[in-house]
C-alpha cells in the first residue's frame, strides 16, 4: 500500500457521546453497560483485550480473553509459566485495553494482578471443552518448540493418558489471574478528533472522575 493511501485512512466518529451526567459513578458498572453494548453489537471477540505487562522495565503485550469481572476485578486464564506469567511474577502491575471498533470505543484499565483462587481456576478449567483441557497439558506456552509434530505427539500422549479419566486434573501451571483496577479510562470517539475521555481513579475507597483532553 502506498504511503498516501495509508495516511488518508481515517474515520470521523459520530455514533455516540460520553457525558459526566450520563455515566455511573462506579466504573465497574459503567464497564458492564459498555460490555453489554459490545455483546449486543455482535463484535467478533467483544471480550478480547490487550494485556500489557512489564518485562525488565520494557513493555510486553498480547491479546487474552476476559472471562469474568466484578468489584474484585477483571479475570483471564492462561499458563502461569508463559512469558506473561513470568513477567507478572516479576512485576504484577499491568494494563488491559479493549477496542470496540463498531462502537468507536476504547477502555483502558490499569492495576495490580494476582492469581485467582485454585477453586476458581478449577471451576473454569472444568467448564472448558475436554479438548481444551487436554490442550493445557500439551502446551508449554511460550516455550520454543521444534515443530508442530511435537505438539501432535504430546496431544496423542495426553489423550491416551486421560482416556479413562472422567475428570481431567487441572495442571498446576494453568489458571486464572485477576486485575484489580486502580484506574479506568472510557474513550468515546467524537467528530473532529474531539473525543470524550473520562478517567476514573480509585482514591480513599471511592472513585474520582476527571475528563481528559482528547
Ligand atoms: C483473540 C485472542 C484471544 C486469546 N486469548 C488468550 C487467553 O485467554 N489466554 C492466553 O493465555 N492466551 C490467549 N491468546 C494468545 C495470546 O495472545 C498469546 O499468544 C499467548 O498467551 C502467549 O503470550 P505470552 O508469550 O506473552 O505469555 C489469545 C490470542 C488471541 C488473538
The strand count comes to 9
Kindly report the CATH topology.
Pnp Oxidase, Chain A
Q: What is bound: which ligands?
A: flavin mononucleotide
Quick one: biggest sheet? 9 strands, antiparallel
The second-level CATH architecture is: Roll
Oligomer: single chain
Tell me the domain tally: 1
Helix vs. strand class:
alpha+beta
The best one-word shape is globular
CATH C-level label: Mainly Beta
End-to-end separation:
29 Å
**Beta-strand content bin:** 25-35%
Average pLDDT score: 97
Q: Any idea what the radius of gyration is?
A: 20 Å
Name the helix and strand elements from N-terminus to C-terminus, one letter apiece. Answer: HHEEEEHEEHHHEEE
Report the uncertain regions: none
CATH superfamily: Electron Transport, Fmn-binding Protein, Chain A
Q: What is the helical fraction, as a range of percent?
A: 25-40%
Annotation field: number of helices: 6
Question: If you had to describe this structure to a student in words, what would you say it looks like?
Answer:
The chain has 214 residues and is of the alpha+beta class. It has one domain: Pnp Oxidase, Chain A. Helix content is 28%, strand content 35%. The protein is built from six helices and nine strands. It has helices spanning 3-7, 27-40, 83-90, 118-127, 130-138, 148-161, and strands spanning 48-55, 58-65, 68-70, 73-79, 93-100, 105-115, 174-188, 196-203, 206-211. Strands 1, 2, 3, 4, 5, 6, 7, 8 and 9 form a nine-stranded antiparallel sheet that branches. β3 (68-70) and β4 (73-79) form a beta hairpin. α5 (130-138) packs across α6. Bound molecules: flavin mononucleotide. Flavin mononucleotide binds at residues 45, 48, 62-65, 76-79, 82-84, 141-142.
